[in-house]
UniProtKB/TrEMBL annotation:
A GO molecular-function annotation: nicotinate phosphoribosyltransferase activity
Record PANTHER family: NICOTINATE PHOSPHORIBOSYLTRANSFERASE (PTHR11098:SF1)
Tree of life domain: Bacteria
Native source organism of the sequence: Limosilactobacillus frumenti DSM 13145
Protein name, UniProt field: Nicotinate phosphoribosyltransferase
Length: 480
């Protein structure tokens, strides 16, 4: 699906106004960032870059698009003619997908003609906000599962086909191992997972007949849903009978799935029954409205669950369903010179960070694989120790300090340049692996699911000074 028309009307209204009043080649740079972490966490997992890059690289308006815009009777003929001829002229810098990103850090920076860059806002935010939200929720659940496989089961509860498909992609970036969604599985080369629903069991005269029929059709995929009637009185005993029959025929069962009831106690008793029957390797899968806190609680209680199937609370991020990423102008080119810009607000939290920036992850030279902070700097700055920095958190009391004895690694990379093929990773499991490596570098306290420690993010003194100068300038202009 082409997304050039997934744009709010006001974007076109502004673009038409820019065309009428400003030089058509006026250049601008916009940053995508967020201010608050969902679920009171400490970071977000960046996701959605592949789709953004692919859409921007092929960005253009069809005849049908232009005819529709013309029918609105709001735009000049010259502007519509301009739109009909343009192709992407923008450059994209971004954090690699899977990167843990902290509040106020640029996830993506888009530069190019002001008119074009402005028109990209809505669909870029739509993609980045959604996939980053689901990848983050997935990471939380996978973190709680302590290495146990998580299967994404949420397609039927997602807010539409795209949310189901791209949400499954994001869920894998966040750590999931498979999906039940065949559209996502085929499109993104994700292992497909799933066996039966209760309807299968209900379609046969009794539970045992249903299990036997399944084993006959799928002798190497005998994973049985045991909670249609009674998990311990019929489900598990009938599963064991079928497992024994399968073993006698040379097939080993996969295991059972519990989808209702007191999953912790049922799993404990089911594990005992399976072990006593000679099936210690038969796996127990849990599903049914699970999230990170339920998963952690089950495991804390000692529930012998081998893997989880998680649907609605993952694919919708139901506990915190919005990532409020924003798209803000950071600088403009005027008469051949780049001028930093800023949005000033009564709320200090909403003041933007101006200019062309780079984000650095800071590592102690004493522990080179452990990140200790991030630093947002102007792109032309040299980041060397000692470095004076200012806390980027506007509510911080200990605002400034000096960093010493560190190595700085830049995070923002160029993924698209106008006229050049896009360079972006498309293998979701390679992205997942990159994410795991970067997450392993963060302090453990910042990865707690409840009350995580705040990971430090700083501005360089030069960038902080620029921000203050522009705030003062804007306030002075407003007063006069």
């Amino acid at each position: 699906m082409d997304l050039q028309m997934l744009t709010d009307l006001y974007e076109f209204s502004m673009a038409n106004g820019y065309y009428a009043t400003l030089p058509h080649d006026r250049q601008a740079r916009f940053d995508v960032f967020y201010r608050r972490v969902p679920d009171n966490g400490s970071f977000v997992i960046a996701a959605g870059l592949q789709q953004v890059v692919e859409q921007v690289a092929n960005w253009h308006f069809s005849k049908e698009n232009i005819e529709y815009l013309k029918s609105l009777k709001e735009f000049s003929p010259d502007f519509l003619d301009y739109l009909s001829k343009i192709k992407n002229s923008c450059t994209i810098q971004a954090l690699p997908e899977g990167t843990p990103v902290f509040p106020r850090e640029p996830i993506i920076s888009i530069s190019g003609p002001l008119i074009e860059a402005q028109l990209l806002e809505t669909f870029v935010l739509n993609i980045i906000n959604h996939q980053s939200l689901i990848a983050t929720k997935s990471w939380q659940i996978n973190h709680a599962a302590q290495g146990r496989p998580i299967m994404e089961f949420g397609a039927r509860r997602a807010q539409g086909p795209d949310a189901a498909t791209y949400g499954a992609r994001a869920a894998v970036i966040g750590g999931c191992t498979s999906t039940s969604n065949l559209q996502a599985a085929s499109q993104f080369h994700i292992p497909a997972a799933g066996t039966m629903a209760h309807a299968w069991v209900e379609s046969f005269p009794d539970e045992l007949s249903a299990f036997q029929a399944w084993a006959k059709v799928y002798p190497n995929k005998i994973s049985l849903l045991v909670d249609t009637y009674d998990v311990l009185k019929s489900g598990v005993p009938n599963a064991i009978r079928v497992f024994k029959q399968a073993r006698a025929n040379g097939h080993e069962p996969v295991g059972i799935r519990i989808d209702s009831g007191d999953i912790s106690q049922l799993a404990i008793k089911a594990r005992q029954m399976l072990d006593e029957a000679g099936f210690p390797k038969a796996k127990i899968t849990a599903s049914n409205a699970l999230d990170a806190h339920v998963v952690k609680s089950l495991l804390d209680e000692g529930a012998p669950i081998d893997n989880f199937g998680i649907g609605e609370r993952l694919i919708t991020s139901s506990s915190s369903p919005v990532l409020s990423g924003v798209y803000k102008l950071a600088e403009e080119e005027v008469n051949g010179k780049w001028i930093p810009t800023i949005k000033v607000s009564d709320s200090r939290e909403k003041v933007t960070i101006p200019g062309n920036k780079q984000v650095y992850r800071i590592y102690s030279n004493d522990q080179p694989n452990k990140a200790i902070a991030d630093v947002i700097a102007l792109a032309d700055e040299s980041i060397t120790a000692p470095l004076k920095v200012v806390n980027s958190n506007p509510t911080a009391t200990n605002a400034s300090q000096v960093l010493a004895n560190f190595t700085a690694k830049p995070l923002l990379k160029t993924y698209l340049t106008a006229g050049q093929p896009a360079k972006v990773e498309t293998d979701v499991f390679k992205i997942q692996q990159t994410s795991r490596q970067l997450l392993a570098q963060l302090p453990e306290a910042s990865k707690r699911l409840v009350n995580p420690d705040r990971y430090p993010v700083y501005l360089t003194a030069k960038l902080a000074d620029l921000q203050e100068q522009l705030i003062t300038k804007a306030q002075f202009a407003e007063e006069n």
